[in-house]
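Quick illustration, no need to memorize.
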Amino acid sequence: MVNDIKYLLSLLGVPYIDSPSEAEAQCAALVKSGKAYAVASEDMDSLAFGAPLLLRGFGSKREPLVELNLDDILQTLEMTHHEFVAPGIMRGGEYASGIEGIGFHTAFRMIKQMRTIEKVLAFIEAKGDTTKFRVPDFYPYIEARQVFLQPEIDENVTFHWGKSDAQSIFDFLVRQKGFSTKRVEIGL
């Protein structure tokens, strides 16, 4: 399906990017470099990857679009970007298992108070109370933090818009993919 979408975009003359890692990281980099205005996503990881501006709500017909400005959020929370990513890492996600017994609100409160994951871990270890909080044996929080703070991105992205090819689009959608002729003609 992804290859079909890429092919259709090329037939439409629309540029696309193959991100070397996380799409949210690449999108955040495009906004930071001025090549895009904002990231449009429902995924809050976009902010963790440093997207200066995130637009949410494109999937809702009833709810308005929401614009989230990372600098405003950091200022309101009185946090650095480094501190901002820490609660998500402590809670756990796709890059590292979380600390058992710590949800997002507890992680947020601990980071506000102690400022780093390292200090939180030292606090948990000093307390010696493994019934309340349990740090996984393998806890790659440093690597998880690097994923957000220094993600793998393509810094040399350029956009080249092409011309659309209506006949090839028609052939692809109708003859190869079985879309209705009328629907494609209306769309074209």
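The longest strand covers residues 53-56.
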